[in-house]
Amino acid sequence: MDSKRLSAHASNASTDFTQSVEDDPLIDGPLISQDALQSAIKREFQGLPTNWIAGILTVVHVAYVSVCVVLAVLCWLTDDHSKECKAALNGVDTQTVVLLGKVGMWLLMFMFERCVQHHHSAVRRRGYLQFYRTTRNLKRLPLLIHSAGNAAVLVVIAPSSLLDEKVKNLSVYLLLVIICVELLVTLICLLVYTVHVSRFNAQRPGPDISEEERSHAYSTNASDMHTETGFRDGSCLDEVVEKQADLIEYLKQHNTLLSKRILALTSQQIRD
Q1: Least crowded by CB within 10 Å, which of 42, 97, 197, 253?
Q2: What backbone torsions phi and psi does residue 6 show, to the nearest 5 degrees?
């Protein structure tokens, strides 16, 4: 009796499954091969061009500081080449040229920060969340350094007459020290940033979620299978929430792209 009930139950379940398959319009459609779907959603790696921009900015910054030192030594601290300096600068004061160049360098740093932010936001949308967080503060440092340098220059230039009365050309020496220190710190930041970006471009990694799944797939020890999106003792809750929000945003964009690709491939196979 029990065997009859089991067989009847199995036949009913098989009938229900068959009906559900027949009623599902997606299953009646043409099947999409896994290779075609993966090739459709696989994105080609896009490197960051900001390392070249940082290199060009470094050269410009070194040239500016070199010009400032030459002008200060030849035209500002001594009067031996005053006529040649006036002819070369078209009568413009040396201090004015140095300060205008300082403002120009700050504008270049501002444009560099905006350009880098644009490219890094695109990298973040493509799923490279760890790289974005690693360089988030580093890319802002050159602009912050030059902003602090501008404030220090104002502090020196404003009481320059009082400083020069105590020590001859003291304001000029302080201005050169500020510019040189600013150059040194900015070069370190730009060099570290260039190394990060060059390494990222050379490795050509996949999105963070893909790299994590790949590492889990090759992991043989269950204890090694972990993720950085969970909360652990000693971790910062704000950072965990930010990571989860970034990951959810990327997965939503990825699912949207995947849905569009599936619909496009399905309609293409129907037409064929």
Answers
A1: 42
A2: -65, -40
Per residue in 76-88, pLDDT tens? 777 766 777 777 7
Residues 173-204 have pLDDT tens digits of 999 999 999 999 999 999 999 999 999 999 88
36-53 exposure pattern, b = at least 16 Cβ within 10 A, e = fewer = eeeeeeeeeeeebebbeb
Q: Is the pTM of this model over 0.85?
A: no
Kindly state the tokens that stand for 34.
């896994």
DSSP string, 10-67: HHHHHHHHHHHHHH-HHHHSPPPPHHHHHHHHPPPP---THHHHHHHHHHHHHHHHHH
Residue 259 lies inside a defined structural domain of this protein: yes
Domain range enclosing 81 = 50-205
* Shared-domain flag, residues 240 and 183: no
**251, containing H or E segment:** helix 237-271
